Amino acid sequence: MIITFKYSILIECNDELMRTLDEQRCIHEAEIERLSRSNQIQCANLDSKLAEAEKVLEELIRDKKNLEATLSKDTNEKVAELSKEISSLNTALEIKSTEIKTLRHSNAKLQLKVEEIPLKDIEISKLKHRVRELKILVDQKTNTEKVLTSKFEELQRSARNQAVISESMLKENDLLRYKIEEMESSTSEGEPNSVKTDSAIKYRSPQSVNICPTRLCQSEQRPTSSTIPLRSSQSRGDVMTRSVISLYLEQGRNRFSKGNIDTIYTPEGTFIAKDRSCSQRLSFDDAHDADDEGTPRLTRANEQSSVSGGNNYHETASRTTGTVIDSGISECLQTTV
Fold it and tell me: What is the pLDDT of residues 270-298, one digit of tens each?
């Protein structure tokens, strides 16, 4: 029973396998037919392509022959041209070689000159240092020149101012001297018993006035009196005139009552001058006055008498007294102004 069952199962399996085999055979045959048809189509295509390729090959062979012929011609021409170029290049090479030789020779000369460059650099540095020093000297001299020019201009301005002031002082001094002479003449006329001696004071204006050591230019003349401020100086000059006149009037009254002694009041001090028997008198030394701007000095009477004598003493005393009076009046007026 079991055997029959197994046999029946095997028969069924065998039938099933046979059916599957038939199906696979049919499928394979159909696939083979399809592949054979496609193969035939591909072979036909390849045959057509092969024929076309053969035609192209023949054309390429012909083109090759033509190209070889043209190439041989071009090659010959190019070889000829290249041979010509080679000959020209050889000529140029010879020229360049000669140029290289000359350049090498000049390079050797330049190398010799290059060795001199450090020495030249040292000389250049020295010259630059010298140029800097000269520039510094030029700047210093320029600055000094500017300073000296400014000082010179300042001295010129001060000289002009001093000239104006001295001229105004001289005019006021002459006016005061004239008024004092008139007052003394009136005083001497009012005193008939008084005797005029040789020691009478002679008033005179100084002949020259040294204002500045630098000389003024010819174009820088003394300004006219119209440029002097007379209005402000006249009012102050009148006060000084009255005070100085009163002082000298008082001295003129008391001069003969005090034993013929001259007492002169100046900004430098009081000076006493006696007639003939005086122990001290006033005198001026030109060298000394040039140094200390006209400051009076006292000298011994016997020293002056041994040089000049009695008559010269009176003239010197009167002259120096007048000079001291003039300088005192001018300094008083200058201080007041």
Answer: 555 544 444 343 443 434 443 444 444 44
CA distance 320 to 316: 6
Tell which residue, 221, 213, 210, has the closest CA to residue 160.
Answer: 221
Global confidence as pTM = 0.27
Positive or negative, the CA dihedral 255, 261, 262, 264 is: negative
Helix (H, G, I), strand (E, B) or coil at 317: helix
The residue type at 179: K
Residue type, 297: R
The answer to whether 146 and 207 are in contact (CB under 8 A) is: no
The token duo for 183 is 């007052």
- Can you tell me the distance from the alpha carbon of 69 to that of 75, in angstroms, rounded to the nearest whole number? 10
| Residue keyed to tokens 């001058």 | 273
Average pLDDT over residues 188-214: 45
Q: How far apart are CA 93 and CA 255, in angstroms?
A: 128
User: Any residues with CB less than 8 A from the CB of 194 and at least 6 apart, and which?
Assistant: 188, 256
Please state, in angstroms and rounded to a whole number, the distance separating the CA atoms of residues 18 and 26.
Answer: 12
pLDDT confidence tier of residue 248, bands split at 50, 70 and 90: low
Contact, 267 vs 335, CB < 8 A?
Answer: yes
